[in-house]
Amino acid sequence: MRGVTIQCLFYGSLIFGIWTALLCFYIHHNHVSNLEKKSQGPALIWSLGKKLQQQITHDPKQIPRPRVRFETPDEDETAEYKTFLKLRKDSNYSNSEYIAGFLKYGFNAILSKSLGSERDVPDTRNKMCLQKHYPADLPTASVVICFHNEEFNALFRTMSSVINLTPHHILEEIILVDDLSSVDDLKEKLDHRLEIFRGKIKLIRNKKREGLIRSRLIGASRASGDVLVFLDSHCEVNHVWLQPLLAPIAKDPKMVVCPLIDPIDHKTLEYRPSPVVRGAFTWHLEFKWDNVLSYEIDGPEGPTKPIRSPAMAGGVFAINRHYFNEIGKYDRDMELWGAENLELSLRIWMCGGQLFILPCSRVGHISKHRFPNQPGLMKAVTYNNLRLVHVWLDEYKEQFFLRQPGLKSVAYGNISERVELRKRLGCKSFQWYLDNVFPELETSEGSQ
């Protein structure tokens, strides 16, 4: 009797356990199904460490919404993901093509494609500029445009604007330097489209990646115009842009001039007028735009008066070709991009030249959104800054190292050739530069 009782209890417990397990499984399955129904819908999968992918949806008209799938990101990937979130927050777009274009080109590539290869931009010059007249016998210009994986339409608008808004008798040529681009559009497609500019454009393709500085040197070495005009590959020149740059160089070959840079918004590509500003920099050697002192635009010329500028932005400027060679071109041992604009600015002022911004010349420029995960570029900028510091700042290099003491022991290559160039040109001291060109640097940055 006792054995029968034990058997009944055993089988009863077993049946109860099985039913309990089945009930739990049913509840769990029902909960998961409800969650899946709620989460269904088109989604953009952002896989850190991988390219953007768009999930296939049943309704192609629906706009995909972002969903994040975390893997194990490294530091660069985390920065890229944070940038992605910020881009979505700051824009009205949410599709993968828009985000991919931003990450690849630094601006709204979808809108750039819709704008096409050319467009009309507003004339942002002061009305007083319309009254100015320029000599008919101006020197000729070679426009040098270097690019690396530039968005096709932005590059083509740069070239088209130069062709359409420049008198042909002063435009000697456009020299395109392809710094080993890998984007398909910049290969056969570009070659084919350039046929319409036959006779005005030279295309040079680098055999290895040289960087902006050495690419510009390559382009300048092939130029035949009297004046070199360096232009970034994401610009749009404005009405009567070149004549104001050439006229003062015709009078003084040691005059280096820049247009006013009108910003083109990186999200909307809206072309906006710039106020009259000058180029400057901090003791960290970071370029900045500076307000023009009121007395500099007093007088009959008003806001059309040429502005003495302590520094140039570097994206767009004009210089006599022979003077560019005489003054030492660029420091070809600098890497990629960065600091070359400040180094050339100091060299111009300290070695007998002048640097001016001309408000009656306007050029639009897309200020690209730059991403933090570019260690190669940051390393190049640091290296280039140190070359500048040790050649041109004299005792004031301590002001630079006071703010960045960790760079004192960082290598900067052999500068003996540039030091010898400074001696040969009979250049003045950096103290002279502070006293006569940019006294505000010492007073405004002294406590920082």
Summarize this structure briefly.
With 448 residues, the chain is α/β, with parallel strands linked by helices.
Helix content: 25-40%
Counting helices, strands and paired strands, the structural category is: alpha/beta
- If classified by CATH, what would the architecture of the domain at 127-262 and 274-366 be? Alpha-Beta Complex
So how many helices?
15
The percent range for strand residues is 15-25%
Radius of gyration over C-alpha positions, nearest whole angstrom = 30 Å
Look at the structure and name the CATH superfamily of the domain at 127-262 and 274-366. Spore Coat Polysaccharide Biosynthesis Protein SpsA, Chain A
Q: CATH class of the domain at 127-262 and 274-366, anyone? A: Alpha Beta
* Distance between the ends: 96 Å
Low-confidence stretches: 25-81
Instruction: List the secondary-structure elements in sequence, H or E.
Output: HEEEHHHEHEHEHEEHEEEEEHHEHHHHH
DSSP summary, beta strand count = 14
Main sheet makeup: 5 strands, mixed
Strands of the largest sheet, in order across it? 6-5-4-7-13
Topology:
Elements: H1 2-39, E1 43-47, E2 53-54, E3 65-69, H2 75-89, H3 96-105, H4 109-115, E4 141-147, H5 152-164, E5 171-178, H6 188-193, E6 201-205, H7 211-221, E7 227-231, E8 235-237, H8 243-251, E9 255-264, E10 277-281, E11 287-291, E12 307-308, E13 316-320, H9 321-326, H10 340-350, E14 354-366, H11 375-392, H12 397-403, H13 416-425, H14 430-436, H15 440-445
Parallel strand pairs: 1-3, 4-5, 4-7, 5-6, 9-14
Antiparallel strand pairs: 1-2, 7-13, 8-14, 10-11, 12-14
Cofactor: Mn(2+)
Subcellular location: Endomembrane system
Keywords: Disulfide bond, Glycoprotein, Manganese, Membrane, Signal-anchor, Transmembrane, Transmembrane helix
